[in-house]
Amino acid sequence: MDWDSVAAGDVVEALREVEWSTSPRSLAEFFSRFAFPRSFSKWMSRLKCNLYYYRTNYFILLIFVLGLALITRPLAIIGAALTALSLAFLNDSFAATFNEKAIRTIRQFSPHLAAKMRPPHMPVIRGRSASRKTVYVCGQPRLVFVLLGLTASFVLWFASCGLLWVLYALATALLLIMLHASLRTPNLKARLNTFREEFRAVWRNNSEL
């Protein structure tokens, strides 16, 4: 896959739509080979490739650094967990899976309430949903849950006086991620993986036509 021709927005869109439950890469692979990129274009290509390929490892690293920084502040830890959950809702696969499990659990206690939480019916035009990008969680657009989670997180951080620590930890985690993504040389497995994901995306889009 030619990562030079992939825009940053395309990488963000791919991270939003990719399967959320991908297992993290092994530590041996994660810390195997490092080298400085030879040019700016090589660096950008490597950065986009590694951010996509090691996405689960980077997410775990982010949570780990935040947990270490807030280990003495329980309210701030809850706030960090809410932030992680809110950001996870931005991923289509995670939001859909969470929605189905939540409705299935609520149905056991209140079938009528679970029926109301089903997403509204979307009109279909020429075999394709008119709002294919809209994702619902418990009957509401997922953006509602994202905003509620981030707001609650901010309140918890402010109440625990841990907001400054969160900012420091977040900056540290992002710096570590950028350093690893910049110096880790993409291997053949990473390139083959991106080809496979690309094929699956093309096949899924064609099946919807």
From TrEMBL:
GO terms, biological process: vesicle-mediated transport
Gene Ontology cellular component annotations, sorted alphabetically: endoplasmic reticulum; membrane
Membrane-crossing residue ranges in chain numbering: 52-71, 77-98, 142-159, 165-183
InterPro entries: Prenylated_rab_accept_PRA1
Transmembrane recorded as keyword: yes
Pfam families: PRA1
Highest taxon of the lineage: Eukaryota
Sorted UniProt keywords: Membrane, Transmembrane, Transmembrane helix, Transport
Membrane topology category: Multi-pass membrane protein
Keyword Transmembrane tagged: yes
Localization (cell): Endomembrane system; Membrane
Functional summary from the UniProt entry: May be involved in both secretory and endocytic intracellular trafficking in the endosomal/prevacuolar compartments.
Family listed: Belongs to the PRA1 family.
Protein name from the UniProt record: PRA1 family protein
